[in-house]
Amino acid sequence: MAVKVIHPGLSTTVQDLGRPGYYHLGIPLSGGMDRFALRVANMLVGNDEGAAVLEAVFMGPELEFTAPATVAVTGGDLPPKLNGDERPGWEAFPVKAGDRLSFGFLKSGARVFIAVSGGIDVPVKLGSRSTYTLGALGGHEGRALKAGDELPVGMGGPGKGSVPGALRRMPGNPAELRMLPGLYWHRITAESGRRFFADTWKVAPEADRIGYRFRGGTALDFVPREQPFGAGSNPSNIVDACYPYGSIQVPGGTEPIVLHRDAVSGGGYMMLGCVISADMDLIGQLQPHAAARFVEVTMEQALAARHDRQAALQRVRDHLGR
Amino acid sequence: MTIRFSFGGDEHIFGEVSESMSLEAFFTSLSMTNAIRAAGIRGVTEICPANASFQVKFDPDLIRPGDLLKELQGMEAAAAQSEASIQTRIIEIPVFYQDPWTHETLMRFRERHQDPSKTDLEYAAEVNGLGTVENFIKAHSSQPWFVSMVGFVAGLPFLYQMVERERQLQVPKYLRPRTDTPRLTVGHGGCFSCIYSVRGAGGYQMFGITPMPIYDPTQQVAYLRDEMCLFRPGDIVKWKPIGRDAYDAALEAVEANRFEPVIRPATFSLSEFNKDMAGTNAKLMEALNGR
User: Fold this and answer.
1) Which of A172, A230, A297, B8 could form a disulfide with A244 if both were Cys (CB 3.0 to 4.6 A apart)?
2) A264-299 residue pLDDT tens
3) Three-state DSSP class for B151?
4) Which residue of B has its CA nearest to A271?
């Protein structure tokens, strides 16, 4: 069984839950930008939740199946079409050999996850099938898909069911991204910090798997200091340090960048804190120009939100009888 | 030095040993991360040393953030007192300074540079008061460098000069980052040099290029078969200036997969280095060149 790529879409990559353990070498986690949707896609087709799927952004690919299988598409509202007929998202459907899957235009969200029963069976690299394109590692030949690629698919079991809207999770408008201030938060003035939370930001065109840039808010005011040796001369510079996932760096104090699954692992810009783990999936569903606000939370609130997210996933498992 | 701890969201703890760069701060960060690794704490998933700080990623479902913080704080005193001495490696990196490829790239991005009328090397020589590019290359390549961090992208080393602070080369990064940097460019920003392991964006000044791959995700390169990334924090590097002929010959050897990097075991003690930098570096050169 294989999936043939007729048209690759804008940037379609193989992703699973990621590749932990190599960040100290600069190799990031990678994996789905919306892992809730990735897990649910796998549940619908009867796979392990962490099986490899295809992640497509803004524009769907066109694919052909060489054998019967079950397919499900979750994530943003990018309508799947089987042989030209529209199919609902978040629902398992069977495909036959020679069937073609294509997509309509994106209505909301940013990314879809296409699961095939058996999972995309590219070689495992450092414990994961995820694609890290910057390092040409994992996935299909370490890169986004191209027309003519043929992806092996594993042996799958049956899948069925659908997940109603109430059980899904997508960002609001504006998206509310909860963040825990910390790291170099003390480098900005109290008034500047207040404005950071009060402003509504917009996703900039520079938004990809490495990070999401935001603009439209007020530039930061830094607490004056003599720059430490080795840090660089801009007040937003620090001695190059590790960058956490979800960390919000602000080069030059103007446009915040939230690092995501293909994060650069370190660098010389101060960070204001991190978007909490529960809200990282929401960022993966933001389009350029989408409005977003950063909402301050405490560690206790961040952990409660994490538990809420796990409970939401459990409700989907219960609904599907898994 | 007292480590400043801060949570990075609900999955990271960040520890800043010092705001400013020094080998002392690096060694404390390295001994902290070694101690954390040795402790085998349940729930810890990534342990990353950096130049003067470090980061630990954890699963808060397995360990409470406050409990992990207390454990790390408990290791601080021991890490600060540990003997800053390591068994490491010294690696020779051939560099073709003023090569045509980084030159072509830097000319494409002149409008993002502090001084569009000069090359990156001319600018670096001027801001360091060294007069000529030749003097700058000599200062850059005559003393060894310490790998104080690996990251940014896969396998990229940050390198810190093993000389007195007054003699350290410092060059600002580009005013705006380039969208392109040739693979294996030797760059410099602030007080750090680096080798770009892959082609891509970058803000460091570009001085030259090495023929020697340092990251290989396909694990075909003979010396990268076991580890995709050549460098580890604590490695010591000596740049070896080479010309076009030697570069071409090395590249041919790389392509035929018979290139053998010069890598020798070495011992490094921070207290001995601080007592006698010239003497310590001379011993490292002996280790590299087999006397």
Assistant:
1) B8
2) 999 999 999 999 999 999 999 999 999 999 999 999
3) coil
4) B8
Q: What is the pLDDT of residue A95?
A: 97
Residues A182 and A137 in one domain: no
| Nearest Cα residue to B114 out of B161, B176, B165, B206 | B176
ipTM of the complex: 0.96
User: Which helix or strand (DSSP H or E) is residue B41 part of?
Assistant: none
Mark yes or no for CB contact B7/A299 under 8 Å.
yes
Mean pLDDT of chain A: 97
Q: For chain A, which ranges sit under pLDDT 50?
A: none
User: Are residues B140 and B51 both part of a single domain?
Assistant: no
Asked if B164 is an interface residue toward chain A (Cβ–Cβ < 8 A), one would say no
Q: Are residues A156 and A190 in the same domain?
A: no
What pLDDT shows up at residue B266? 95
Chain A with chain B: Cβ pairs closer than 8 A: 188
- Are the CB atoms for A31 and A125 separated by under 8 Å? no
Best A24, A238, A259, A303 member to test B by mutation, with max B CBs in 10 Å, is A24
Q: Which domain holds residue B208?
A: 87-289
Residue A316 counted as domain residue? no
Q: What is the pLDDT of residue B274?
A: 93
CA distance A233 to A230: 9
pLDDT at B1: 67
**Is residue A8 domain-shared with residue A141, that is, in the same domain?**
yes
Residue A33 lies in a domain: yes
The nearest CA of chain B is from the CA of A275 a distance in Å of 6
Q: Are the beta carbons of B151 and A24 separated by less than 8 Å?
A: yes
- With CA atoms as reference, report the closest residue to B189 among B176, B175, B170, B208: B170
Residues B47 and B130 in one domain: no
Residues of chain B scoring pLDDT < 70: 1, 291
Which region, left, alpha or beta, applies to residue A87 given φ > 0 means left and ψ of -120 to 50 means alpha? beta
Given this model, what pLDDT does residue A23 score? 97
Judge contact between A254 and A265, C-beta under 8 A.
no
Residues of A in contact with B198 (CB under 8 A): 134-136
Query: Across the interface, do A240 and B54 touch by the CB < 8 Å criterion?
Result: no
Residues B188 and B53 in one domain: no
Which chain B residues touch A136 with a CB distance below 8 Å? 198, 217
Contact B6 A245 (CB under 8 A): no
Q: Tell me: the pLDDT tens digits for A189-241?
A: 999 999 999 999 999 998 999 999 999 999 999 999 999 998 888 899 999 99
**Sheet architecture: strand order including B53-58:** B4-8, B12-16, B53-58, B44-49
Q: Which of B9, B21, B47 sits opposite A239 (nearest CB)?
A: B21
User: Is the minimum CB–CB distance between B214 and chain A shorter than 8 Å?
Assistant: no
- B74 and B144: one domain? no
Number of domains present in the structure of chain A: 2
